[in-house]
Amino acid sequence: MKLVNIGFGNQVSEEKIVAVVSPESAPIKRMIQEAKERHTLIDATFGRKTKSVIITDSTAVIISALVPEKIAEKVNETEQAEAKE
């Protein structure tokens, strides 16, 4: 199981990530609100502005203060390190 750092020492399993998206669109805002209501929202922002939303293969939705490009970069780094092994 490879873990990806999503900011402030928080990590998520790379295998569970389905998508990393920006939080500005209305459908994503609705998804965040619905996850809050279902108690499946994981807030990894530490009080900072939400810059990305990580959609997992379970019902969990994770919000992070890192931009989606940075998280994708970290996922690619773990994949490249895995390929070298």
What features would you describe in this structure?
This protein has 85 residues and is α+β, with helices and mostly antiparallel strands. Helices cover 35% and strands 32% of the residues. Strand 1 and strand 2 form a beta hairpin.
Oligomeric state of the chains in view: single chain
Largest sheet: 4 strands, mixed
Estimate percent helicity.
25-40%
Order of helices and strands: EEEHEEEH
Q: What is the spatial order of strands in the main beta sheet?
A: 3-5-6-4
Query: Count of helices?
Result: 2
* Uncertain runs: none
Mean pLDDT: 94
Overall tally of domains: 1
Which descriptors apply to this entry?
single chain, 85 residues, alpha+beta, four-stranded mixed β-sheet, two-stranded antiparallel ribbon, 2 helices, 6 strands, 35% helix, 32% strand, globular
Q: In a nutshell, what does this entry contain?
A:
With 85 residues, the protein is α+β, with helices and mostly antiparallel strands. It has two helices and six strands.
Write the layout of secondary structure elements.
Blueprint: E1 3-7, E2 10-13, E3 17-21, H1 26-38, E4 41-44, E5 52-56, E6 61-64, H2 68-84
Parallel strand pairs: 4-6
Antiparallel strand pairs: 1-2, 3-5, 5-6
